[in-house]
Design a protein that fits this description.
- The complex is a heterodimer of chains A (249) and B (250).
- Chain A is 83% helix and 0% strand.
- Chain A has 249 residues and is mainly α.
- In chain A, helix 8 (163-201) packs antiparallel against helix 10.
- Chain A is globular, with a radius of gyration of 23 Å.
- Chain B is an alpha/beta fold and 250 residues long.
- In chain B, 36% of the residues lie in helices and 26% in strands.
- Chain B is built from 8 helices and 10 strands.
- Chain B has helices at 46-54, 93-97, 99-104, 109-122, 138-151, 168-185, 196-202, 233-249, and strands at 3-13, 19-30, 35-39, 61-66, 69-70, 78-81, 156-160, 188-193, 205-210, 215-221.
- A 6-stranded mixed sheet of chain B has the order 6-7-8-3-9-10, with helices on both faces. A 4-stranded antiparallel sheet of chain B has the order 2-1-4-5, with helices on one face.
- The longest helix of chain B is centred in the C-terminal third of the chain and has 18 residues, at 168-185.
- The two termini of chain B are 35 Å apart.
- The chains are: A mainly alpha (249), B alpha/beta (250).
- Chain A binds chain B through residues 151-152, 154-162, 165, 169-170, 173-174, 176, 249, and chain B through 54, 56, 73-80, 82, 84, 86, 88-90, 99-100, 103-104, 132-134, 145, 148-149, 152, 154, 158.
Chain lengths: 249, 250
């Protein structure tokens, strides 16, 4: 029991030290100018203000809508396509060069076209997120399908399963853990893309909040925005890790 | 269901060697309800022959006729029990066992489950019906795999060293259960093994295969009364004569 208590405490030591150090160099001893780096008290005041006037919630929800929109669209395209490409070698050969060339392009490189094609607002951001997470999900799905244990496919066939049933009842469930890993990677990328997209072609969301705060000399709000993104990241990570624990056998 | 194996040749092509001939001129008739053991050293092509009968691979030449039809692809009539564990890890024991029934038959679900529970009870696995495969021991997994094929009413069971990963005690127990099942359901069984003791214990006929290339060296009929006793003189004599033959082949 004591061990358990200690294990939960250990991860907190470093953050507490960092906050104390942060306080000391800023508001405590005044070594760093508050416009270069705001202190923890300023950040807490900004956070309180943003919570009370509802801006934090609105912008967080706005960002989350875009993340989920892009992620869901990417899943709708990438999962069925991945199953198809993983199953039919010829199709994969046909598509592989195009995928290999498009995949390393950073999603933010699509920003100029996204603004050109979709203007400003929700749609271009969703498009960039889509471009960011479609490839990891696709590649993980293809991999999951290909890694299906051959003996399971052959068992199903000798139990009388048709090709369709082999796909639906064997290959798909066996690829699910890989697909979940792909979604986990995808959501991390989606979060990064959203912030970048909001900084360029948007008038709402956490990225927009961070950028406008900086130009209004409100560094407290900038830090609140950054921490908020970090917390969203942890939350997603927690949910997906829990999901994986349940799925991996 | 009988199986006729006619002039089967199987060779694999690889880039390094020219052509590797695995099976040459295999001719064999397996009668309905017979329990045949394919016995031979590793590399003699016994697993390859089993996969050809299953329809999982195609012969280079020759043909296999099962129940009057040429084998061209896998079918629910010829279930394979693999050496590796082959249960679906995302399904419970009960769901694994009813998998084949859901594929082929139009029997209502409740009847399938009732039948599955009856079978699981008969091999002492009913308490594990809601367990997942990773919670079972090796012997239990293979018993579930056998039940899965039996419940599917596959008239032909093709077994590829299914007990080789088990300890001796479990192996002997499962061999006895297999004989019990076979007597009750009268399946045709082709059982691949490299274990002389296992072949003598199980088989109506032992087909000894040579290697390089794989050919039928000899077919031995075993006429010892079942359940066979391993310490009976006739069992020991037959076992020794087969071991001698295998040694000469090497």
């Amino acid at each position: 029991m004591f061990d358990n208590y200690r294990n939960k405490f250990i991860p907190l030591i470093l953050p507490i030290c960092l906050i104390i150090f942060w306080y000391l160099i800023t508001e405590g001893l005044g070594i760093v100018n508050p416009y270069i780096l705001p202190g923890p008290i300023t950040v807490c005041q900004s956070a309180w203000e943003l919570i009370m006037n509802g801006k934090l919630l609105t912008n967080t929800l706005d960002t989350l809508y875009k993340v989920f929109g892009g992620l869901i669209l990417a899943s709708i395209v990438a999962i069925p396509l991945g199953i198809l490409l993983g199953w039919y070698k010829t199709l994969e050969d046909i598509a592989s060069l195009v995928i290999s060339v498009l995949r390393p392009i950073p999603p933010v490189a699509w920003i100029p076209f996204s603004i050109l094609w979709f203007g400003i607002g929700m749609v271009p951001a969703v498009f960039i997120i889509f471009m960011g997470c479609v490839f990891p999900i696709l590649v993980y799905t293809i991999d999951g399908v290909k890694r299906t244990d051959k003996v399971l496919i052959e068992s199903a066939q000798t139990l009388g399963a048709s090709d369709w049933n082999v796909l639906k009842r064997v290959i798909l469930p066996s690829a699910v853990p890989y697909i979940v890993s792909g979604l986990k990677v995808g959501i991390g990328i989606a979060l990064m893309c959203t912030i970048s997209a909001e900084m360029v072609g948007s008038s709402s969301g956490l990225g927009y909040m961070i950028l406008t705060a900086t130009s209004l000399f409100d560094p407290g709000t900038t830090v609140v925005g950054m921490l908020d993104i970090g917390i969203i990241g942890i939350a997603f990570d927690y949910v997906f890790t829990k999901a994986q624990d349940r799925i991996f056998w | 269901m009988s199986i006729e194996i006619k002039n089967i040749n199987k060779s694999f092509e690889s880039k390094k060697t020219d052509k590797l001939s695995v099976l040459e001129d295999i001719n064999l008739t397996i009668n309905d309800g017979e329990l045949i053991c394919l016995l031979g050293p590793s590399g003699c092509g016994k697993t390859t022959l089993l996969r050809l009968i299953a329809g999982l691979d195609q012969p280079t030449s020759g043909e296999i006729i099962a129940n009057g039809e040429k084998v061209v692809k896998p079918s629910g009539d010829r279930a394979v029990i693999f050496q590796q564990y082959s249960l679906f890890p995302w399904l419970t024991v009960l769901q694994n066992v009813t998998f084949g029934l859901e594929m082929t038959k139009n029997v209502p679900k409740e009847e399938n489950i009732a039948a599955a529970e009856r079978y699981l009870t008969s091999v002492g696995l009913i308490d594990f019906k809601d367990s997942y495969p990773h919670e079972l021991s090796g012997g239990m997994k293979q018993r579930v795999a056998i039940i899965r094929s039996l419940l599917n009413h596959s008239p032909i069971l093709l077994m590829d060293e299914p007990f080789s990963a088990l300890d001796m005690q479990n192996r002997h127990k499962l061999q006895e259960q297999l004989i019990g099942v076979w007597k009750r359901f009268e399946n045709t069984i082709v059982f691949v093994t490299h274990d002389v003791d296992e072949a003598v214990f199980l088989a109506d006929k032992i087909v000894i295969l040579d290697k390089n290339p794989g050919r039928i060296a000899e077919i031995i009929e075993v006429n010892i009364e079942r359940i066979r006793k391993r310490d009976s003189p006739e069992f020991i004599a037959l076992q020794e004569s087969i071991v001698e033959k295998l040694d000469m082949g090497d």
